[in-house]
Amino acid sequence: METAEAGHADIIGWFEHVSENACKAQSETLRRILELNCGVEYLRKWLGTADVGEMDDNTLETVFTSLVPIVSHADMDPYIQRIANGETSPLLTKEPITVLSLSSGTTEGRQKYVPFTCQVTQDILQMSRLSAAYTSRCYPIREGGKILEFIYAAKVSKTPGGLSVGTATTLYYASKEFKTKQETTKSFTCSPQEVISGGDFVQCTYCHLLLGLHFSSQVDIVASGFSYTIVQAFSFFEENWREICADIKEGNLSSRITSPCMRRAVLALIRPNPSLASQIEEICVEMESNLGWFGLIPKLWPTAKYVSSIMTGSMLSYLKKLRHYAGGLPLVSGNYVSSESLIGVNVDPQLPPEDVSFAVVPTFSYFEFIPLHRQKQNQQDMPSDRDSVEEKPVPLSQVKLGHEYEVVLTTFTGLYRYRLGDVVEVTGFHNGTPKISFIYRRKLILNINIDKNTEKDLQGVVDKASQLLSQTTQAEVVDFTSHADVKASPGRYIIYWEIRGEAEDRALEECCREIDAGFVDHGYVVSRRMKSIGPLELRVVERGTFGKVAEKFVGKCGSLNQFKTPRCTTNSVMLDILDASVVKIFRSSAYD
Ligand code: AMP
Question: Which family does this protein fall into (predicted)?
Fold first, then answer.
């Protein structure tokens, strides 16, 4: 059997080769995608009967990019809906699509499905191995060690046509590739499958922590998908460590774990361990009283070499807290991935998250980049106002250092010239492939965890709730804004409403519930169900508050005519005005 080190050398050798020949790798990738799927309805529509097999690389790329249009999810949605409804003729791919994955974001207020094939789980495996190889060069770990991994699989459901639907991570954790990854990297997750797919954030987190502590002497890595989850898990630990400790002492499991199969699986792994329990207790008492939980991770997991998760983009807001828990332990920022395609690997794991960029892996998809020139930024710090002027897309080989681009993907799963919606900056090159850093997601305004809601989503749900208010009361909404409260634990959305007229509390409570339930973005729904995002709050402000906000900001904006209430704000001056004017607060009961 191959050692982990030999496996690491193999995969790094492979990546060095494809990145040196990135341009060639891209041409070959495009050719493979088109040959695999030639003749499918979507490609026939744009390429007609063109024989891609007969074309040289340059002609192929020119024909493809001049005939096939750049699209967004809304354009692909009718095809994906037909697949979801059970149509089996080759629409996007020749091989039938039997599984759909739920990407974050929505299309016209509906959940966003993207095709999923075994190619995706294989690519995730390839990416994990590549990443493990680069990271182990900086931070070597033991073979056979453990990872305290805060990972959560949601439920797999069925479409009307009988296809399975789940998030890409849910589908991956249930795949054989997830097992293969542990075997080839020779690092094993502490928690069994029954905990990973337990479906309740609190119960799963409790078990992840309990098992992480039970195996603490073997833990090399503390990890999660996005860093929000690690921060949530340890803030839960601060409140509940005594109960966890008691379970370790007695080899028992708290009655708060109600899932029988999770109970069985955890109880089968643990044994009473009074000496470990008293060590943990001593450390926790000291951390609680004197240290404010600084360095919690290395104190409780002294053999851990690093903390790993996605820490870039919107996750930067949790970095301070993560550093606090990590003490001096290195933070290794996770790769750049999406449900549509894997994108880039972090080849510099030693860099702090603020400086991390990702080397594009040119075999995962055919990548194009739309050059963007940002317009002057609005004073109100609105991501949706940061939209930019676009130019003609360029291939991977033509991106320029320091320039910003929107990523466009052509994937093995049947997305052709598909706008991902992410804006990246080219920060360097790894051999012949660009290194890109994530800048922001276009049009995104509300984002705490894996949820992603745009201004349009917000407007849609608030409109519905406003209608409900005017139908059931003598009141109407005059103006509104929102805020993603990442300081609360767990994080939550806050909606500020100014209303005119009289409204009973019960009606407003119902509006609050309606808004919370109205966000159908799968990332939000799953996070709310699992309680990793807290109940949405509706804060009613006194009459005239938005007028005060406008007055305050007009100075900066120029003229009152030009002022538009931002639909989401992180501006502390604006939040102070709003919070000082709150007359009533309602908490949603939508997911109670
Ligand atoms: P999803 O569609 O739910 O699979 O989420 C994928 C999206 O998450 C990407 O399109 C990015 O907007 C964001 N994302 C993924 N990886 C990173 C990363 N390393 N840094 C910042 N944002 C990321």
Answer: Belongs to the IAA-amido conjugating enzyme family.
Residue 437 C-alpha from the chain's centroid: 16
* Position 371, amino acid: P
Q: Whose CA is nearest to atom 21 of ligand 1?
A: 313
SS3 content of the chain, % helix, strand, coil (to 5): 45, 25, 30
Residue 305 and residue 162 share a domain: yes
Ligand 1, atom 6, residue with closest C-alpha: 338
**pLDDT band at 379, cuts 50/70/90?**
very low
162 — phi, psi (to 5°)? 90, 10
363 alpha carbon – ligand 1 mean position (Å): 19
* Residues 394-419: tens digit of each pLDDT: 999 999 999 999 999 999 999 999 99
What distance in angstroms lies between residue 234's CA and the mean position of ligand 1's atoms?
Answer: 23
| Residue 49 domain flag | no
Asked whether 14 and 364 are in contact (CB, 8 A), the reply is: no
pLDDT in tens, 254-275: 999 999 999 999 999 999 999 9
Q: Global pTM?
A: 0.89
Number of H helices, E strands in the chain: 20, 24
Which of 422, 522, 525 for a ligand 1 pocket mutation test, highest count of atoms within 8 Å of Cβ? 422
What does the pLDDT read at residue 504? 95
Find the 300 Cα to ligand 1 centroid distance in Å.
30
Query: Taking the alpha carbons of 109, 110, 111, 115 in that order, is the dihedral positive or negative?
Result: negative
Listed residue (264, 248, 253) closest to 213, CA to CA: 248
For residues 313 and 165, membership in a common domain is answered with yes
Looking at 279, 312, 329, which one is the last position of a domain?
A: 329
CA 262 from chain centre, in angstroms, equals 25
Q: Which domain holds residue 532?
A: 455-587
**92 Cα–ligand 1 center, Å:** 24
Q: Which H helix or E strand runs over 196?
A: helix 193-196
Last residue of a domain, one of 312, 329, 346: 329
Query: Which residue's CA is minimally distant from atom 7 of ligand 1?
Result: 338
- Please provide residue 558's backbone torsions phi and psi, each rounded to the nearest 5 degrees: 110, -70
**How many domains are contained in the chain?**
2
Classify residue 530: in a domain, yes or no: yes
Residue 486 has pLDDT above 80, yes or no: yes
Pocket of ligand 1 (CB under 6 A): 103-104, 168, 310, 312-313, 334, 336-339, 420, 422, 438, 441, 450, 523
Q: For residue range 524-567, list pLDDT tens digits in order.
A: 999 999 999 999 999 999 999 998 988 888 765 456 666 778 89
- Could you give the CA distance from residue 545 to residue 540 in angstroms, rounded to a whole number? 10
Q: Ligand 1, closest atom to CA 333?
A: 19
Residue in the structure block whose two tokens are 């710090």: 381
Report yes or no on 447 lying in a domain.
no
Pocket test for ligand 1, best of 124, 438, 454, 526 (most atoms within 8 A of CB): 438
DSSP label at residue 295: T
Please report whether residue 465 resides in a domain.
yes
Distance 507 CA to ligand 1 centre (A): 37
